[in-house]
Amino acid sequence: MIKILKTRDYNVKLKATIHRSGRLGFTSDTASTLSLSNQSFVKFAIDDEDDNAMYLLLTSKEDEDSFKVIKSGEYYYLPTTLMFESLGFDYKKFNIMFDLIRMSEYDELLDGQVYKLNKRILMRKERKNKE
Questions:
Q1: Residue 17: CA atoms inside 13 Å, Cβ hemisphere, count?
Q2: Higher model confidence: residue 74 or residue 7?
């Protein structure tokens, strides 16, 4: 069977960034596409066979392994500071961003919406002190 690909599925790039505080922040397009709210929770998974593979699992169920999505104004973030520090992410020196790639084949297995986090790292620009 031939299937027409829908351009709307490819127009929005889902992104998240680790801020200097260690919080994982979502772009407004990403928050909207993922339908993030104060009732959303996120879990993270890593692949023990691939050090670079990391996954985000979006769920509406809270448990001991989930992070609660927090809204501040129009902005959504996760309190992930300790997790990223324990994983060795140097988010103070580097600007660490993730492109989220939908991995629906894992949804049933992990009981939620699964996204692979493709990491991009850039040097942070130095902040200029105002005197």
A1: 13
A2: 74
